[in-house]
């Protein structure tokens, strides 16, 4: 605990206040690109520790929403808070990541020229300044953390191999492992099972459900059977705003949803 | 970690070991063997080697930013030249009354331009300590300001390369002007001595050569430590996936500014060691073609290895010395051709050949024994 406190020097005043049970607030958020409204007055609340699935047709604003939360894109208007008090619009990407919002990209991006172990090492939650990094040596607790994550993502065997040599599915897991190493409060996961085999998809579903509770997990996914297997609450986005929200059964019987999304894509 | 550990197993030990042996040999051969002996190394060769080693140090600096951080700087010649000018200013002031005009304070070119006092930026130029400060500060500060502006506004790739090229070109034009106060076209030359030791004496030349190898060894050691530290891994992560690195929580702009600045300081030190050995610094050192040549050294040697940069600088510089003696006008074509060939056939550079050569040799050796 002590070691953690000192390594959190930079971010210690950035612990989200979740007394109301909500970890992420998006209120009236709008983003437009050349007149196209990618997000249109979006309101979304993610509860602390929940597993939320976001679905929506292409262009519904799913990825833009993630960009806006992680600081990659600035909204034209609206408010985004992490907990009650942290205004994410005032932080840059690195600060948002340090505050505890981790993101997995649609296309797996790991550091290919580094080993699996080094990938996780860089992702550990600690002071990320240059001077600190220059002299840093892993302590026992951090090594245990890495070993634990390697076991969770099933890459213990490949620990010293280059991340670039992993299979597609393994890279996806490594990226999830990198998120875990950062001990985030919120995990934003963009299409985690795209391109995975059936077994890999099942393992990923298990992994994500086991993470909820300790972390809040937001999953964007096209694969409806996968969403059905993990989802408790589903939010449907359509043209940049929320169309419907609720349990899978509720969503599937929702007339608007049937019309714009499920009617076309699910079989 | 599973490798058998031998005395010369790591590149660090090999490079520092080789440098040490070479320096020792040159010192002995230059001092103790008679000039007509086959083993003798002449003063000329000592200085030539010293010059090559300055280039090696410069190549090391380029490899650090390009090979490890993916910043293709086409303006490292500017940092080299600034370090060189800082040294040159000090050496100019050491000439004193021995100049053509015999003015104890003003260098000849200022008397010629009928200036009556030193410009403000020549303040302290007669102090050796101040010179050392400037060798570090001038390139370091320029790199810091340039880097901070470029990397914070996320300029990268070819745009950054063009900007660095423009930077060195702008400095070239500025230093050509007499009003700049750096000797214009002719630059700074006619140096007599450094810290009271004559630059013509073989003892001074040998000392400068030894100093250069010491700095090269030291710089190699520090770079080696940097790229093997956690910060070095972050730098490589930035090279391969900058945006991912940001989302992992690293302020990538700060890392890039730091590595760029450190590299510029190394280049400045290389320039400062170069000038007393070749005896002149002029605006030609700022010329864009020089900076491109540095990148070619690294590409030919093998980028992202550190020792590859040293090998590349030494091999190409030696080839240049030989080639320009025979066919001066063809050198640039040869250099360009070499660059194209290496890029096409040896993407890992000359040092990338080593593992292949080794396995080939290992395959051949037992066969011969069996026969």
Main features:
heterodimer; A: 267 residues; alpha/beta; Rossmann fold; 6-stranded mixed sheet; 4-stranded antiparallel sheet; 11 helices; 24% strand; globular; disordered N terminus; B: 371 residues; mainly alpha; two-stranded antiparallel ribbon; 14 helices; 4 strands
Characterise this structure.
The complex is a heterodimer of chains A (267) and B (371). Chain A is of the alpha/beta class and 267 residues long. Chain A has eleven helices and ten strands. Chain A has a six-stranded mixed sheet with strand order 6-7-8-3-9-10, with helices on both faces. Chain A has a four-stranded antiparallel sheet with strand order 2-1-4-5, covered by helices on one side. Chain A starts with a helix and ends with a helix. The model of chain A is unreliable at 1-12 (pLDDT under 50). Chain B is built from 14 helices and four strands. Chain B has one domain. Chain B has a two-stranded antiparallel ribbon with strand order 1-4. Chain B has a two-stranded antiparallel ribbon with strand order 2-3. In chain B, 68% of the residues lie in helices and 2% in strands. In chain B, α3 crosses α10 (252-278), α7 packs across α8 (230-240) and α11 (288-301) packs across α12 (307-326). Chain B is globular and about 70 Å long. Chains A and B meet through α3, α4 and α5 of A and α8, α9 and α10 of B.
């Amino acid at each position: 605990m002590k070691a953690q406190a000192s390594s959190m020097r930079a971010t210690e005043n950035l612990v989200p206040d979740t007394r109301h049970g909500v970890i992420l607030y998006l209120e009236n958020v709008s983003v437009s690109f050349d007149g196209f409204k990618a997000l249109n007055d979006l309101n979304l609340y993610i509860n602390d520790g929940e597993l939320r699935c976001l679905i929506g047709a292409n262009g519904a604003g799913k990825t833009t929403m993630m960009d806006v939360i992680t600081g990659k894109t600035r909204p034209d208007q609206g408010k985004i808070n992490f907990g009650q008090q942290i205004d994410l619009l005032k932080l840059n990407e690195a600060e948002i990541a340090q505050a505890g919002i981790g993101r997995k990209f649609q296309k797996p991006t790991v550091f290919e020229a580094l080993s699996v172990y080094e990938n996780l090492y860089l992702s550990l939650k600690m002071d990320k300044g240059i001077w600190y990094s220059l002299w840093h040596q892993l302590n026992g607790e951090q090594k245990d953390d890495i070993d634990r994550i390697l076991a969770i993502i099933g890459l213990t065997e490949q620990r010293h191999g280059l991340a670039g040599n992993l299979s597609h599915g393994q890279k996806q897991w490594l990226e999830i492992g990198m998120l875990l190493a950062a001990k985030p409060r919120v995990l934003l996961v963009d299409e985690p099972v795209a391109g995975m085999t059936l077994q890999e998809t099942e393992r990923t579903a298990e992994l994500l459900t086991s993470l909820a509770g300790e972390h809040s997990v937001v999953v964007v996914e096209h694969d409806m059977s996968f969403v059905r297997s993990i989802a408790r609450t589903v939010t449907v986005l359509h043209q940049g705003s929320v169309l419907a929200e609720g349990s899978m059964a509720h969503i599937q019987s929702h007339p608007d949803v049937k019309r714009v999304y499920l009617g076309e894509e699910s079989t | 970690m599973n490798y058998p550990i031998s005395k010369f197993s790591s590149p660090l030990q090999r490079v520092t070991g080789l440098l040490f042996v070479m320096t020792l040999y040159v010192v002995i051969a230059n001092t103790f063997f008679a000039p007509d002996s086959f083993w003798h190394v002449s003063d000329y060769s000592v200085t030539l080697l010293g010059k090559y080693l300055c280039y090696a140090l410069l190549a090391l600096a380029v490899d650090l930013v390009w090979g490890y951080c993916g910043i293709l700087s086409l303006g490292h010649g500017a940092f080299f030249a600034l370090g060189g000018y800082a040294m040159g200013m000090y050496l100019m002031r050491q000439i004193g009354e021995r100049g053509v005009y015999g003015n104890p304070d003003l260098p000849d070119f200022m008397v010629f331009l009928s200036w009556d006092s030193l410009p403000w930026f020549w303040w302290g130029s007669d102090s050796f300590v101040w010179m050392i400060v400037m060798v570090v500060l001038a390139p370091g500060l320029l790199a810091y300001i340039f880097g901070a502006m470029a990397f914070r506004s996320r300029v990268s790739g070819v745009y950054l390369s063009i900007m660095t090229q423009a930077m060195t070109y702008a400095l070239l034009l500025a230093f050509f002007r007499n009003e700049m106060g750096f000797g214009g076209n002719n630059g700074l030359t006619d140096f007599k001595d450094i810290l009271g030791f004559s630059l013509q004496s073989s003892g001074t030349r040998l000392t400068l050569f030894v100093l250069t190898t010491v700095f090269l060894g030291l710089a190699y050691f520090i770079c080696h430590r940097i790229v093997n530290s956690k910060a070095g891994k972050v730098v490589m992560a930035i090279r391969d996936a900058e945006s991912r690195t940001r989302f992992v929580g690293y302020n990538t702009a700060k890392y890039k500014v730091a590595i760029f600045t450190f590299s510029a300081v190394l280049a400045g030190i290389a320039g400062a060691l170069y000038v007393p050995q070749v005896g002149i610094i002029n605006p030609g050192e700022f010329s864009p073609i020089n900076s491109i040549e540095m990148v070619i050294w690294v590409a030919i040697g093998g980028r992202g290895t550190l020792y590859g940069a040293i090998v590349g600088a030494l091999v190409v510089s030696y080839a240049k010395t030989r080639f320009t003696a025979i066919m001066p006008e063809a050198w640039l074509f040869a250099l360009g051709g070499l660059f194209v060939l290496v890029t096409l056939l040896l993407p890992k550079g000359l040092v990338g050949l080593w593992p292949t050569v080794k396995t080939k040799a290992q395959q051949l050796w037992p066969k011969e024994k069996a026969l």
